[in-house]
Amino acid sequence: MKSMTGFGRGTAQGEGYGVAVDLKTVNNRFLDVHIRASAELSQLEATVRKRVGERLSRGRVDVNISVERTSEVSYEVNRPLIAGFIQAMREMQKEFGLSGEPDINVLARLPGAMQAARTGVSEEALKGVEQALAQALDELEAMREREGAALAAEMASRLDEIERHLPVIESLSGEQVDNYRARVNKRISELLARDGLEIVELDQGRLSQEVAYLADRSDITEETARLRSHVAQFRAALSETTDTGKRLDFLLQEFNREANTVLSKSTDLAIKDSALAIKAAVEKLREQVQNVE
Q1: What would the pLDDT profile of 8-60 be if each residue is shown by its tens digit?
Q2: Fewer CB near the last or first residue (10 Å), C or N of the chain?
């Protein structure tokens, strides 16, 4: 199991260039790749997306690519800009009767007067970007695996907590029929006494039918069996390596459904407390699963 949170960095050097690729990932329902690179590297964008998609299945991925030239850099002179500036100075000199000549230091400091020549990125440098990207992906995946192992251990403890409450529910659910019978008897006696009627002997057959009907409606055997099954499936999914997050998210929905059914069917306070504790553990699991790839 892998986390969706991680960071990786890769570098490559060659004749006249140095490359650095940084990858940062956070949780997201789908794979969402954002690339920051100079226009000279636009031809690599499709390749970068493909390489990332081959290694990652979910998460927002921020890719930052920088290429630094380490060889001698040639500069281009912005001749129209300088010519226009000198012409403006000549007109100013003539109009106001000023003396002097244009200063080379002033001209050199003009914004945009000189800029590095655009010679493009060499084929060797482009291969260096792919090499650095592969290295960054290796480092990123290693970190995501470490984070995933920590998440798995924490979620396993939440499953232990759920399992501690299941025996309580199972043991008390068998007593609900007797409890229903006692409550029905008590309620009928209270109603007769309130209305001043004589206590009459109840039809035990009819009473048994009513109790059986209520017990059937409140039977939670199936729900507890499914909860145990979900725990086992969840544990198995923690050791999977692909699409783990989607499977865990589905199981959490089922956990919540069964816990809600137990709450709605049962009137026993101890069972309700255990079901609420299970729901609380499920919510904590949900927060953690949001970061699983």
Answers
A1: 999 999 887 889 999 999 999 889 999 999 888 888 899 999 999 999 988 99
A2: N
Q: What are the φ/ψ torsions at residue 202 (nearest 5 degrees)?
A: -80, 150
Report the alpha-carbon distance of residue 169 to residue 196 in Å, rounded.
40
Give me the DSSP letters along 116-180: E------HHHHHHHHHHHHHHHHHHHHHHHHHHHHHHHHHHHHHHHHHHHHHHHHHHHTTHHHHH
Which among 123, 137, 122, 143 has a CA at the least distance from the CA of 55? 137
Distance CA 13, CA 69 (A): 10
Distance CA 201, CA 283 (A): 50
Residue 11 to residue 67: CA distance in whole angstroms: 10
pTM of model > 0.70: no
Identity of the residue numbered 143 = M
* DSSP states along 33-47: EEEE--GGGGGGHHH
Alpha-carbon distance values, 11 to 178, 196, 198, 238, 266 (Å): 72, 92, 93, 33, 61
DSSP label at residue 73 = P
The DSSP element (H or E) to which 205 belongs, if any, is: helix 204-217
Joined together, the tokens standing for residue 233 give 């499936």
Cα distance between residue 26 and residue 58, in whole Å: 9
Residue 27 CA: distances (Å) to CA of 2, 7, 121, 287: 11, 13, 33, 11
First to last CA, the chain: 7
Tokens linked to 264? 């709605």
* Spatial distance between the Cα atoms of 268 and 168, rounded to a whole number of angstroms: 11
